Amino acid sequence: MSEKIFACLLRLYPPCFRNKYAEDALQLYRDRFRDERGLLPKARLYFDLIADIVAGLPQAYRNSQTEIKAASLAAHSGEVPSFRLLDKEPLSPTLILLGSVLAFTVLFAFSFVMTHEIFSGQSSSFSGKESPIESVLRRLNQPISQDSIGASSDASAASAAGAPAGTRNPPSTSVPAIPSTPPPGTRSDAPHAVAVQQPSIVASVVRTPNPERSVPISGQPRLENAFSAMAQLFQTHDLVMFGEVHDSEQEYDWLCKLVKTPGFSDRVDEIVVEFGNARYQRTVDRYVAGEDVTFDEVQKAWRNMVADVEPVSPVYGRLYRAVREANLQRPGQRGIRVLMGSPSADWSKIKTSAELAPYEAERERWYAQVVKQDVLAKHHRALLIMGAGHFLRGHEQALEDELAAAQHRVAPPVNKANLGPGFIERQLRAAGANPYLVVFGTNMIDNRGDVDQRFNTWPAPVIVPLSGNWVGALPAQPVISGGRAQATSLTLADQADAMLYVAPCSALQTVYLSRAELDGTAYAREMIRRNIIELGHPVSFQYGNVPQCAQAAPSAH
Amino acid sequence: MRQVEEQTGGRTRLGPGTLYSSIEALLEARLIEEVGSPEDTEALQERRRFYRLTPAGRKLARAEAEKMADVLRVARARKIFRGDYV
Predict the structure, then answer these.
(1) Rounded CA separation A440/A420 (Å)
(2) Fewest CB within 10 A of the end CB: N or C in chain B?
(3) Where are the domains of chain B?
(4) Which positions 2-41 of A are in contact with B (Cβ < 8 Å)?
(5) A108 Cβ contact partners less than 8 Å away, ≥ 6 residues apart
(6) How distant is the Cα of B12 from the closest Cα of chain A, in angstroms?
(7) What residues make up the domain containing A21?
């Protein structure tokens, strides 16, 4: 090792060490180099020098750490302020650079943490995440009476939704009063087809201006590919509640594609459906597992569900078939199971409305129980599909608004602090679940046929988180129902976490069985019998495809 | 360096970095202090540095030596050493 190399190695030592000892160290090196002759001693010298650098550098740097000496300005330095002087090691450019880099790194990390999303089960943002700042703001704005509301409104909520209020209230056999216009996506006791096809009763709901709405929300929504977004939701949520609009062809086309999306089928264990009678769970299990079960056999599951007063749309069978195909595409892997969320009723034994009523009253409680037993207890993840009316938050308030409109009276002011989750969501949250609510939505913003042009540029299908943007500020009922339900004081953000948008209203179709599939069949006769049991009279069937959204009605205003 | 090597029978070999780092640490701890060179032309020519123990250094060295002597005594009592050390 030449002297030059050793001199270079000495530069690894701190400056104060070099200034003081470099010459001496070089001298020592020269002495040893001169004294130790021969190949072996020279080799040992090189080895020693390398080992010396490895061992000596840390010690040298420890020694060079700036010694802080107190140079007190007063005799009693402990009692009065004093200056401290940096001794020996002035701040070198390297140290300043290092400090700057470190400071910027810390600043960047702090900024990243404060703005980056973190998981929060209570978040209303799309992915269930929120930044610490958002978390603090949400808590500051959070109503303090949620629990008390939940306790007091359980009974009314369950009653309004046709379900019992937990274990404290036994299932009622009386059919609850429902406003004239059923909520979107709710299979009510009134004929669904009639309710959907008839425009809502139009009456102005006059309200005290709500301070929360006095400032328009203009934040831009975050549009996410609906397939990947739905799959990602299961990274942070064990349950995703999808509030469907019944019989929508485009909505179910999307669902059928979704179940075949690898990111979804890899993460989701079950799909819990409203349109499935629990009596047929084993048949459905065999069918979706790819076993030899005929379609005629398995379709009893949705055709015999409780509380359907019209022939069931073929879109539901398509979803069952899509799940079966998705499972068959993944041989040897865990398949998606379809769980029946409708009570186990035997229609062949139901002859009167009194015999049907207990099943009707049990619908939401049954659904929640299925999720708790077959999903949450197994620590699974599930997509829950049910009519949006069963899932929407604050839906009791929306029903009250509609009732007031129907009765041509002024609705009382809304206290949005009192808006809470529906019966099913409350049950699931109480069981420890962390659900996220997505509802189907359209671009129709009122029941006059007006659409919001801002939707035109959306790359559908998309899922849009509703918090803090203009989409969330839209009136919930018209958007969800495609203009068939009247606006209330509730916005989309009030009632859900996110919205699925698959196509503009002009392209959306509601699908019914065709005349060839229905007329003169045993199923049609059975449906007429059920209509009479439920309603006292038969209901006219709808056939084929019809526009899903309300048509423009210029005479309305 | 040579002296250390000789005293330890070659088991401890100090390099320049280790040596001066150790000296610096002892200086900062005020266990040794640098003294002026003696009236020795040869030493001046070799630009040697001279250090001596401070009272604190001497006290600490004595304490350390006594501690090691105690350990050595115990080791001998328990017949841990063999050969020359027994």
Answers:
(1) 19
(2) C
(3) 1-53, 55-86
(4) 10, 13, 17, 20-21, 23-29, 32
(5) none
(6) 10
(7) 3-71
